């Protein structure tokens, strides 16, 4: 049983901008790449990332939507313990401009110059099913369904 709640973990994730997204390739291998959540870090069990329709990420998710995310918080001053979090979940590919606008930040224009009108733009939504964390010497797991923690037992 987890000692921390999803809300507590979300607070610890507040300043983490990058996650490593892992997918399964057409040959069954694991492919991983850093993805920026562009400070859209109000983690409630869902995570959002922008990419292009012609990317391996989109092809992999189209074939097999089960994915993994890995986060690491910066270690602070000497003596601070690191924080790690992994998410196992299901990815969905969103091509709706209304959803793009809801998760868009100005910084994204460095990668997508035409904003939400960028041809081939795709929003990847990862819905958590299991969250595992390591907070120094503490560790725990939370099962998630529909953005809510699932009680054990």
How many separate domains make up the residues? 1
Order of secondary-structure elements: HEEEHEEHEEE
In one word, what is the shape? globular
Q: Main β-sheet: number of strands, strand sense, barrel status?
A: 8 strands, antiparallel
How far apart the termini lie comes to 9 Å
CATH class: Mainly Beta
Q: What is this structure's SSE topology?
A:
Elements: H1 6-13, E1 18-24, E2 30-36, E3 46-52, H2 56-63, E4 66-72, E5 83-94, H3 97-103, E6 121-135, E7 138-145, E8 148-150
Word description of this protein:
With 153 residues, the protein is an alpha+beta fold. It has one domain: Electron Transport, Fmn-binding Protein, Chain A (Pnp Oxidase, Chain A). Helices cover 15% and strands 43% of the residues. The chain contains three helices and eight strands, in the order αβββαββαβββ. Strands 1, 2, 3, 4, 5, 6, 7 and 8 form an eight-stranded antiparallel sheet that branches. A hairpin with a 2-residue loop joins strand 6 and strand 7. The longest helix is centred in the first third of the chain and has 8 residues.
What attributes characterize this protein structure?
153 residues, alpha+beta, Pnp Oxidase, Chain A, 3 helices, 8 strands, 43% strand
Q: How is this structure best summarized?
A:
The chain has 153 residues and is of the alpha+beta class. The protein contains 3 helices and 8 strands, in the order αβββαββαβββ.
């Amino acid at each position: 049983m987890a000692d921390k709640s999803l809300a507590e973990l979300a607070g610890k994730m507040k300043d983490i901008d990058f996650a490593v997204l892992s997918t399964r390739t057409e040959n069954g291998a694991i492919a991983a790449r850093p993805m920026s959540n562009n400070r859209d870090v109000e983690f409630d069990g869902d995570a959002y990332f922008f990419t292009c329709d012609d990317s391996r990420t989109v092809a992999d998710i189209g074939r097999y939507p089960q994915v993994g995310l890995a986060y690491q918080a910066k270690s602070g001053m000497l003596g601070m313990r690191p924080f790690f979090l992994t998410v196992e979940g299901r990815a969905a590919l969103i091509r709706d401009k209304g959803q793009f606008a809801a998760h868009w930040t100005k910084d994204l224009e460095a990668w997508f110059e035409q904003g939400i009108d960028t041809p081939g733009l795709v929003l990847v939504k990862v819905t958590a099913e299991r969250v595992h964390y390591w907070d120094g010497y503490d560790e725990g797991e939370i099962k998630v369904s529909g953005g809510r923690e699932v009680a054990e037992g």
